[in-house]
Amino acid sequence: MDFSELERRIGFVNKYLEDISDEELNRKSEEEAIRAESDFKSLKDGLEKGICSFCENPISHFSEKKPCFHWLLKPKGFKKRHFPLLYQKYSFRRLEAYLRWVANTAIPIKNINDLVEEKTSSKKIELTIAYKNLEWSFSCAESDYRGHSDKREGKTPHYHFQMKIEGNVMINYGGFHIPFHDEDFFSFALSEGKIVKAGYKHIYGAGMQELLDDFSPEEILEQMVKANDENEAQFHTSTIIEAMPGTTISGIDIANLVKEHNKTGIPMARLVKKLSNTKAISIISPGPGVPKLAKRTPHRRNKKNT
Asked: Which of 13, 39, 54, 84 lies 20 to 30 Å from 98, alpha-carbon distance?
């Protein structure tokens, strides 16, 4: 993609949208929301039945002649060498959206780590998505997005992809320099606010970052309950309680709150509000149940000693 040509097209789209009323845009947005709801339900129902909602074949079906999203669910026969057939057909945004939706059919939001605070500052794209025994990761540095003009591979704008099964790497980051499709550049423009009367937002594919963007810490805390398995917890909370000047904190009161927490599952961060003459600060962070970002480290060739 010629970036000057992209800017020209973005300008054309903005001019086109200026002539469309807000009412018409809202109507189209509502239609798209209804369609997305139906598509997500079809995907979820299909997965429960072992059927792909896109090609209508069993999830276990594999044919080199019919590339389909569900290849990334590892049907028997799918190998690393087949992956180019998939990314040549589907754009980055379509592959990403499919995997986000798949992850959210199991447990909404928690299995998608797209947290900005954990993202490498030099990366335009960095996220990890988990589903059952599968894990997929996308990575794109700013230099990848511009293309490596001084290298033999990756001269055009591209990204990298990793796929794990049971923790074992099947497709490694360095295996492919995956070119973006034209529609990817428009989706980036949407998400970056370059198209003024439209936007790009994950709904059924929402991850941890959308949750933090859309809800305040108080709202998130209000919905929290104790996880049955702490290793699968979506959030970790820690609370610092400080007595007001001239007062003390009763150990009995704290013990009673712990007892109530264990019985009801209400987070201590909410229960401490019952204490009088104290102030509390609670810190909410991603829990161990959120997949860790699979970082891509630069490949360095070994230099021979001279």
From this structure: 13
Query: Which DSSP state fits 24?
Result: H
CA 89/CA 71 separation, integer angstroms: 12
More confident residue, 151 or 252: 252
Instruction: State pTM to two decimals.
Output: 0.86
**Nearest Cα residue to 269 out of 291, 232, 241:** 241
Section 142-160 average pLDDT: 88
Read off the DSSP letter of residue 72: G
Q: What is the mean pLDDT of residues 12-34?
A: 86
Q: How far is CA 106 from CA 62, 133, 231, 270, in A?
A: 23, 12, 17, 28
Alpha carbons 15 and 46: distance in angstroms, whole number = 40
| Separation CA 281–CA 188 (nearest Å) | 37
